[in-house]
Amino acid sequence: MSTPAAAYTDAALRLRLLGERFHPGHWGWIVPLAVTILAGVLRLIRLDHPHQLIFDETYYVKDAFTLLQSGVEMNWPEDHNEQFAAGNPQPENTPEYVVHPPLGKWLIALGMAVFGADNGTGWRFSAAVAGTLSVLLTALIAQRLFRSVFLGGIAGLLLAVEGHHLVMSRTGLLDIFLSFFVLAAFGALLLDRADGRRRLADRLAAAAARHGGSPPSTLLRYGPWLGWRPWRLVAGILLGAACGVKLSGLAFVAVFGLMTVLWDMNARRVAGIRHWVRAGVTHDGLYAFVAVVGVGAATYLATWTGWLLTGHGYNRQWHATHPPQSWWEHPVPGPLRSLADYHRQSTQFHGGLSSGHDYASNPWTWPFMGRPTSFFYEGHDDGANGCPVDTCSAAITDLANPVIWWAGTLAVLALVFLWLGRRDWRAGAFLGVYAAGQLVWFLWPERTMFFFYTIAYTPFLILALTLCLGALMRFGGPANRRRNTVLVLAFVVLSVAASAFFMPVWTGEVIPYDQWRLRMWMSSWI
């Protein structure tokens, strides 16, 4: 029979706080890298097609070009897309008012710096890299969360072939970078969670060894300080970068900041700390705020370096004609006051954005994929561009894989029961991310919104689905588990088959019109 002192050995504490050790071995890298290679092939092949700016590439790709040239976004003549694609860009010599921070456009610019600004590979390469690396991160995160190389491989494979993620990875827009940084920040917080629990176990075990097998009661009131948390700082940097792509990253900052403190509170509770809520605030929460919010804010400010240093960006000299009005404004440097006013204008723009658009959609429709976004469409007659019949279509539609997307929506509903019924912290984490990426948009019901905003949480939809698939595999006795594993594999095969079926309308392939129409299952998809 174990003694109370045995509860505070390092081995016992690590078992309670971290569970059994998981050793994935060589397959823990082979499988994730295999699905990443598949993802890279799907995202990089014919990346330069079509050789024209599609959808909002007309804004972000051209902004990226002027960032390379001037350090800030500059205005363009109207109807300049064809001239730009032809390799003859001629921006105007006046700064442009843009509503999104510059980091995503700087990342697009990196691809253009390597491959040139006159081809689709240059415009879209950075997005393809971000999408490919997201598959690797998803596979590794799933492997760690579910302690299974097999489930990690399933998660990576599903994201690799998922059409919504594929289209966004092959288009020079901002949202895939937001998705990547959010996912990477979550991975960093997972590493911080494990590191913090190891530190807690080590400190309590060391104190117990010095005091006859049990930590002193004074230490068990609030627990030890855990000191330097490098992975939490990394998460702060990544979340700041997410906001540097799009300010909708702020919702993830709020959710992740709260989530990491709740994880620490629970760790102290499991370890036997009596005042674990208060300790989670005083010993962990304040430092988490500095790491996530403080470091994130500094990172976000750094993304504006080009605007701050060049002096000729939009609104850059606002402070010169607007002297400080309050006592607290006087110590603030002029460029920072100009940047603050820039953000005031941007906030007003976002809040009042209600212009109509053919492919605008309400967040209520996103879980059902009611109105995906058409990025590109061309019709071809007999013989034109390889059309073998009377009429052909070439389309790039931001349409998710229906099998994966609708199953993922059901998985999110199942997470509620897993979280409430089993207190599964993973389910709670995925629900939090889903809320940050989906529910937050209900705060602005009149704003013009698009389905592709959901790419920010798409990897987590895959993780939620994988969690449910893993639960199904473990349900029942040995015979049921074998049958359920076959069902899981059948689902994966069906998902891959669905991706093969929809691939032409994700990549702009010329196909007969009736074949394109066959893939438009709902009239709202057209």
Topology:
Layout: H1 10-18, H2 27-44, H3 57-70, H4 81-85, H5 103-115, H6 120-146, H7 149-161, H8 163-169, H9 175-210, H10 217-222, H11 230-245, H12 249-271, H13 276-302, H14 305-310, H15 318-321, H16 334-352, E1 373-381, E2 391-398, H17 402-422, H18 425-437, H19 458-473, H20 478-507, E3 510-512, H21 513-519
Antiparallel strand pairs: 1-2, 2-3
Helix pairs in contact: 1-9, 2-6, 2-7, 3-5, 5-6, 6-7, 6-8, 6-9, 6-19, 7-19, 8-20, 9-11, 9-12, 11-12, 11-13, 12-13, 12-18, 17-18, 17-19, 18-19, 19-20
Describe the structure.
The protein has 526 residues and is mostly helical. Helix content is 63%, strand content 4%. It contains 21 helices and 3 strands. It has a 3-stranded antiparallel sheet with strand order 1-2-3. Helix 2 (27-44) runs parallel beside helix 7 and helix 17 packs across helix 19 (458-473). The longest helix is centred in the middle third of the chain and has 36 residues, at 175-210. The radius of gyration is 25 Å and the shape is globular. The protein starts with 9 loop residues before the first helix and ends in a 7-residue tail after the last helix. Protein O-mannosyltransferase that catalyzes the transfer of a single mannose residue from a polyprenol phospho-mannosyl lipidic donor to the hydroxyl group of selected serine and threonine residues in acceptor proteins. InterPro entries: PMT-like (IPR027005), PMT_4TMC (IPR032421), RgtA/B/C-like (IPR038731). Keywords: Cell membrane, Glycosyltransferase, Membrane, Transferase, Transmembrane, Transmembrane helix. GO terms for molecular function: glycosyltransferase activity. Pathway: Protein modification; protein glycosylation.
